[in-house]
Amino acid sequence: MLVHAVHALAQARLVEIVVVAAPPDGRAGVAALLAAYDVPADVRVVAGGATRQESVATALAALPPDVGLVLVHDAARPLAPSELADAVVAALRAGAQAVVPGLAVADTVKRVDAAGTVTETVPRDELRAIQTPQGFRRDVLAAAHEAAGADVATDDAGLVERLGRPVTVIPGHPEAFKVTRPLDLVLADALLARQRAGTVGR
């Protein structure tokens, strides 16, 4: 999944460098794995931290000082197309401080209490399922991480929201789904097979 995720970012027109935060004890193995594939970009592997936020902060610090726009991507979304990364960067270049791709929620969503009783049906038109890559002005992301301290958020956009900075949502992509269950892996394998057969355009 990591190789596919790195390839997608590396093939984006507006991405110049990819930094991978790897487990500290697996950094050499990750670097060797990526080196075995033809990745068309500058790819660097750094030792990540004990948490997702620490890993993002470490990768952020490894970027050259002249990099002003940053994407944060999850290897668990290996099929997010390169075009999605380019769309996020384009929105940043247009003036957004933080950008996240999102899909409209198809299911009815209900809020429940500890006993499992429904307390509210949340209007679907106000909801988006957020994906990665997420994009940020580097100074905004750095400030968000500094202000967060030990506080935990499920994504970097959540840290930016706590600063009171606006987060812009752009259309996501169905193929940018997160591989977390066996069924997701089956779907990913099927999409990759169709791509190899030339039936899915990227």
Description:
It is built from seven helices and nine strands; from the N terminus they run αβαβαβαβββββααβα. With 202 residues, the chain is an alpha/beta fold. It has a single domain, classed as Alpha-Beta Complex (Spore Coat Polysaccharide Biosynthesis Protein SpsA, Chain A). The strands form three sheets. Strands 3, 4, 7, 8 and 9 form a five-stranded mixed sheet that branches. It has a two-stranded parallel ribbon with strand order 1-2. The protein is globular, with a radius of gyration of 18 Å. The two termini are 17 Å apart. The relative contact order is 0.16.
Fraction of residues in helix = 25-40%
- What's the Cα radius of gyration? 18 Å
Count up the helices: 7
Number of domains: 1
Give the helix/strand class: alpha/beta
In CATH terms, the superfamily is Spore Coat Polysaccharide Biosynthesis Protein SpsA, Chain A
The largest pleated sheet is described as: 5 strands, mixed
CATH topology name: Spore Coat Polysaccharide Biosynthesis Protein SpsA, Chain A
> Mind telling me the CATH class?
Alpha Beta
List how many beta strands DSSP finds: 9
Distance between termini? 17 Å
SSE string, helices as H and strands as E: HEHEHEHEEEEEHHEH
Flag low-confidence runs. none
